[in-house]
Each structure stands twice: as structure tokens, then as C-alpha cells.
Amino acid sequence: MSNKGFTTRLVHADRHLNKPEHGAVHQSTNNSVLFEYEDVHELIDVFQGKKAGHVYSRSSSSSAAALQNIINELEQGIAALTFATGMAAISSALLSLLKTGDHIIASQYLFGNTRSFIETLKALGIEVSLVDVTEAKAVEDAVKPRTRMVFTETIANPVTQIADLTGIGMVCEKHNLLYVLDNTMTPAYLFSAKSVGASLVVQSLTKYIAGHGNVLGGALIDTGLFNWQDFPNIVSTYQVSDIAQWGITQIKKRGLRDIGATLAPESAASISVGLETLALRMERSCSNALKLATYLHSHPAVKQVYYPGLADHPQHCRARELFKAYGAILSIDVNPDVDCHALLNALELVITATHLGDTRTLALPVASTIFFENGPEERQRMGIGDTMIRISVGIEDIDDIISDFDNAFSMVS
Ligand SMILES: *Cc1c(COP(=O)(O)O)cnc(C)c1O
After folding, report:
1. The overall pTM is greater than 0.90
2. Distance 182 CA to ligand 1 centre (A)
3. Which end of the chain offers a freer environment for a tag, N or C, measured as fewer CB atoms within 10 Å?
4. Alpha carbon 396 to chain centroid, angstroms
5. Is the dihedral of CA 54, 55, 59, 64 positive or negative?
């Protein structure tokens, strides 16, 4: 199948990679928590990692494994794990790999809940430098002797700054740092995290991958590019015979098994169905986003549009080089005489809700909601204005989306 196109591989992935029984084209959902072994020696071998298999579904199950195989293939990794949510993937990975006294470098434009989780890391004695990741030099300048990893997202939310993904990959390679990339905003159809040297890819499956706002999930993929012998925090118990598996083994044991934020089997099944149409939905959402951004850019009530597809975006060229399309998130600042809350209330089709990557178009005032906890100074550093509205563009017919905004603007201006 490797010579076939993206969607061809995806829609046939379950039957090819997971080989369901009875000729089923989907892997069946298996709710069993426990797994029986007729020979106890076999059970012992699975426990000790000498043999592949499942023993207890918090750590692994056939349903989770089926989705992990598909996600791993999608990101061209060597191994993948799934989690209950995107935040579970991020927090489990970082808590399993870092310890007191370590230093990490992270984007100053992080997703709100990841930013908030950074405070938990600091409370555990992990030092964090938040830097402007649009310049690899800012990342390199922050490197210290105890730096263990660089964590960034591809396109930041809501202001759409694009990290210098290639440059950061080179900095990480030069200094032997783990490069952890949150690829939620630009899933595999748009961008290959491996192509810029990412060591670990983390992502929320809740967003574009599942796509329909009806299931939570997260994933972590090891691209196989990092040499785990260069990482001092792998404990001897998890230094298994294949060095490439050291990192994923420690994250599976300390993160998935011990922290326990496991993806439910039904969720794995719904995510794999959503995933089949990833390319179709991304193409449509990104093309709608570009049209909506162009319309808003020329609207007299709009002061500024933040969208990587517009020529005036500071990283427009970088976006064109790295991504197949410019993503489906955009933000706007309206003119001071326009009440942004009244505008949101006047939208009829577009849903006022948090969440992104849905089939439906969603809009949200960000400073007073998802970035409220950050406070005014940090919001300013992130480029988030008080009346900024974030729009996650869906797959509806574009004329309907534009006319909804057109009506709403005429009601409030
Ligand atoms: C939504 C999101 C997350 C968290 O994912 P959940 O599945 O909601 O826990 C992490 N990173 C980014 C960039 C996100 O947009």
C-alpha cells in the first residue's frame, strides 16, 4: 500500500494493518479489560516484554493497538501510543521524560492548556524558557547545559504564528535535544513532522483527526529520528534491547500505564472512522478558510486578519514551503467601534463555542475565555488583543459561511 495515495492508504488501513477477523473491514471494538493466557509462562513473557500481547487494557488493548498502528503509519513513525485526550498525551509524555532540575525550551505561543500545564512542570522543579519560536535563533540562545527538550506547535492558536520548524530541527540535532512537536493544527495530510526532524509528535485526535466534535483522544508518535542513548532520563528498567524503543517504552510504562489516561475502545473506533476523511475535510476547511480570510481582510469593519494564507502574514512564505495548505484557523481584530460580542451573538450558522478542527465553523472571543487565565501581560506577548475573535473554519458551503458573517456585520455596524 505504500505506493498508494494518502486517502487510499487511510481508508484501507484498518483491513491491511490490523487484519480484522471474519473479513470485517473495521477492527472490532473490544471492551475486555483483561486478557486470558492458558499457559502462565506466556502471561509472564508478555508482562516482561519478551513477547507482544495485551494483559490489562489500561496499558494496551486490541482496539487501542489498531488505532496506534494507523496513526503510526500516518506520521511514518516507529511506534505510537494513544491517550484519552491530547492533553493526556502531552502531560503523560512530559511527566515520564522529565525530572527536577531539567530545563526545557517551549513556545511562548502555546495552546492555553499546555501553557497552563507548564506551570505544573515548574512546580515540580523543571525550569522552562518560553521563547519566540518563529526564530530558531531564539531557541538556540536559550539552550543550557541541562536543556532536555524543545516543545513547540506548528501553527500557534489563535494568532497563527508559525514556528521556524526546520531551523528548530537543526538546533535540536546540533545540541542533541529531544524535539517534541504538537502537530494538532497541521495533521499529516498538511505537513510531515518527521520531515523537519521532530523526535516525538504529539497531537490531539479530538480536533482534525476525529473531526466531528463527538470524541476525545490524543496520540504520541516516535519518529525514530532521536537517539535515546543521548537522553539521560531513561531509567535502566526501560533500556530495552532495541535502543529505538527506549523512549516509547518509558512513556508507555510511566505515562500511559502509571498515569492511566487511556483511550476508551469505543473512542478508538470512532476516531479511526473520522480519520478516513481527513484529507477531504482538510482540503475543504483550508480552502474555505482562505476564502473567508480574503473576504474578512477586505471588510471595512475588520481591522486585521491573522491567517497564514494571506500575503501580509509574517510567515506566509514559510507556511507555503512547509504545508500543503494554510490551515483552517484564523483570527480577526474588529474595528474599535464594532462590539465583538454583539457580532458573535449575531452569527446564526457559525457556532459560538470553544474547540477547533470541527466540520462546523466555530467562533470564540479568546481573551475572555481560553486565554483568560494568562492575564493581560502574557496575552500581549502572545499577540492576543482584547477583542480578538478566533474562527475555526468548517466544511460548510463557503457562500453560507460568508453570508452569515455578512449579515452579522450589517446587524452590528
Ligand atoms: C486541543 C489541543 C490540545 C489538547 O487536546 P485535547 O484533545 O482537547 O486534550 C493540544 N494542543 C493543541 C494545539 C490543541 O489545539
Report:
1. yes
2. 9
3. N
4. 23
5. positive
**Alpha helices (H) along 57-198:** 62-74, 86-97, 112-123, 136-141, 165-174
Note whether 12 and 89 are same-domain residues.
Answer: yes
What's the domain range around 356? 279-412
For residues 252 and 97, is the Cβ–Cβ distance under 8 A? no
* Closest residue by Cα to residue 262 from 28, 50, 26, 56: 56
Q: How many domains does the chain have?
A: 2
CA–centroid distance, 85 to ligand 1, in Å, is 8
pLDDT computed for residue 1 by the predictor:
76
CA of 184, closest atom in ligand 1:
13
Q: What share of the chain is helix, strand, coil (3-state, %, to 5)?
A: 40, 15, 45
Q: Based on the fold, state whether residues 169 and 207 are members of the same structural domain.
A: yes
Residue 3 has pLDDT above 90, yes or no: no
pLDDT per residue as tens digits for the range 391-412: 999 999 999 999 999 999 999 9
Share of the chain above pLDDT 70, in %: 100
